[in-house]
What we know:
The structure is a homodimer.
Chain A: H1 2-11, H2 18-29, E1 34-35, H3 36-41, H4 48-60, E2 64-67, E3 75-78, E4 91-96, E5 102-109, E6 123-130
Parallel strand pairs in A: 4-6
Antiparallel strand pairs in A: 1-3, 2-3, 4-5
Helix pairs in contact in A: 1-2
Chain A binds a DNA duplex through residues 15, 17, 19-20, 35-37, 46-50, 52-54, 57, 72-74.
Amino acid sequence: MKGEIDKKLKQRNIKPTAMRELVYEVLDKNKKALSLYEIEQQFDNVERSTIFRTLKTFQDNFLIHSIDDGTGAVKYALCDEGCTCDPDDLHVHYLCNKCGQTHCLRDMPVPKMELPQDFSFESANFVVKGICSNCK
Amino acid sequence: MKGEIDKKLKQRNIKPTAMRELVYEVLDKNKKALSLYEIEQQFDNVERSTIFRTLKTFQDNFLIHSIDDGTGAVKYALCDEGCTCDPDDLHVHYLCNKCGQTHCLRDMPVPKMELPQDFSFESANFVVKGICSNCK
DNA sequence: GAAATACATGCAACAGTATTGCAAAGGTGT
DNA sequence: ACACCTTTGCAATACTGTTGCATGTATTTC
Lengths: 136, 136
């Protein structure tokens, strides 16, 4: 288990520390995107800033991606293997207005839009909101 | 001019006050989406909270819509005439990573996604990021 | 037109999230 | 063991958004 996680971290050139293994584990076992606060809640005595910087490191190395779902807190979820967060790697996210959970719709790529002349497409944030099947 | 604005406000059941006319004017003459802070900057001695509540009133009555472009500050832009901010009224927004300006791509509707079973589509936020034609 | 009522505004304070500086702790290589 | 670099914890702070309350302004009612 720990070995598996370390491998994932090393694949992304992230030195595996206890903290990072734990944060990875939390992101992995929860099947939804989590905010900094939500991650903090799953630990007893871990500094917010440490988690914050851990997430930043993860994000810089494309191990996780961030989602701004409009709730005020940025959420984080694991990237798929080999993801480089290029336009081609992007997928749609879904925020349930009832339970507040944000899910990755990993098999739903963000559609390429035909932008106006001379506008480049570097990245995108596409969040669909509604009521999820659980809350229906 | 003032008459035109009052008409727009009244169409949306918003009582036209001096404040509201001014905020509307600012949103109208800038052709991009503005944050609360940016709107505040265009006045000399107007309370943030007043503008905040004005925007809230506008939004509740579908005169403006808000965009969360991931920069940390919500931005606001005028709705098209007759807009009710339904899924059908939504359009894509564009954030330039260089100049930081956010534009409405009004003629680019948010594509309807085929969501997983029992997930409803109530609204969406679709922001494309890149370099705009001005900054290229 | 004056009194009563409702609504809008300004001020101040506060809440939540994100972020940074700095020092201590931990690990790595020589 | 020592020097070096990275990570972590603590504290403080910035920024945006939000609310309570008092005051001012407009609108209605008589």
